[in-house]
Amino acid sequence: MEETMVNTVTETKKNNRTSKRIQFSALLASTPMMIVAVGVFVICVSYSVLLSFTRSRLFPNLKWVGLDQYERLWGTSRWIMSVENLFIYGVLFIAFCLLSGFLMAVFLDQKVRFESTFRTLFLYPYAMSLVVTGLIWQWMMEPSLGIQNVIQKLGWESFHFAPLVDPQYAIYGVLIAAVWQSSGLVMAIMLAGLRGIDEQLWKATRVDGIPPWKVYLFIILPMIRPVIVTSVVLLAVGVVRVYDLIVAQTGGGPGMATEMPAKFVIDHITQRANVGLGMAAATMMLLPVLVVIGPWIYREYVRPATRQGG
Q1: What burial class does residue 268 get, using C-beta atoms within 10 Å of its C-beta: 0-12 exposed, 13-18 middle, 19+ buried?
Q2: Is residue 101 over pLDDT 90?
Q3: Bridge partners, residue 64, by sequence
Q4: What is the pLDDT of residues 115-129, one digit of tens each?
Q5: How far apart are the first and last CA of the chain?
Q6: Which of 23, 147, 213, 290 is the one with CA 20 to 30 A from 58?
């Protein structure tokens, strides 16, 4: 009996030492990542916020001006227009991506033939860079080259589809390209969530005679809430930092019809030699990201850990 207890204690000590070695190895392996994260994200972001309170022009300087850059920022019509465009673009972009991505995921979840082919076709646009996407849709929306020209040559001469040349509709032309590019990502995330639903649930709903649309709306969607939240967070972050697509597709025009905050920031730092104002705009862009990501991190990681610890 005593020999068994001694062996158990010895084995426990060995396991503890092995566990500590594994933990130390994991900590050692993650150290470079943590250094980069602290150096790039924390220090650089803090320095950028600091510059937004200074009179930095072509080069950074630490001449303090308080909130002057923010007052000037919110008095600039170009910034106001970019924020309005971002709001319209963001709300519609997230809504249409969620809807189209979910519908594509539901379609693939029916075990259709050539599922892998469809999945590749749906996801392929996301593999393309935003610059390429912008150029493709710029050509497709060009009145003399794209969709309008093709359909008019087929005989429908009254057809018009040239949103990028109309300031009133240009933002919706950009929206079409963005939704086409990002819906595949939402489809992949949603499909993973749908594939995690127990098959017995579907059998039970069929036995009860519940229409499929009610099953999806009232049962499936609440069950895949974490998947939906993840999709919204990823899409929202992409909305705030949209830049490549705008530059490639419209350049912010016509006029300021498709101007976006990210373009405003880059232009003021690189072309207008106004680092202070650009950093103030960048800081304002950071706030909605924190508002979106902060509660998500707390809900998904901090609160569960707190409950487990309690």
Answers
A1: buried
A2: yes
A3: 54
A4: 888 888 998 999 888
A5: 37
A6: 290
Question: Would you call 186 exposed, middle or buried from its count of C-beta atoms within 10 A (0-12, 13-18, 19+)?
Answer: buried
Q: How far apart are CA 97 and CA 232, in angstroms?
A: 9
Interval 141-170: pLDDT, tens: 988 888 898 898 888 888 888 899 889 999
Q: What are phi and psi of 14, to 5 degrees?
A: -60, -45
Give the amino acid at 141.
M
The label of the residue with tokens 């979910």 reads 102
Q: Are 48 and 283 in contact (CB under 8 A)?
A: yes
SS3 sequence of 166-235:
CCCCHHHHHHHHHHHHHHHHHHHHHHHHHHCCCHHHHHHHHHHCCCHHHHHHHHHHHHCHHHHHHHHHHH
Tell me: cis bond preceding 254? Omega within 30 of 0 counts: yes
CA 115 to chain CA centroid, Å, is 26
Lowest mean pLDDT of 56-70, 77-91, 182-196, name the range.
56-70
**Cα–Cα dist 9/3, whole Å:** 10
76-309 domain in CATH 1.10.3720.10? Answer: yes
178 touches 258 (CB < 8 A): no
The pLDDT of residue 6 is: 46
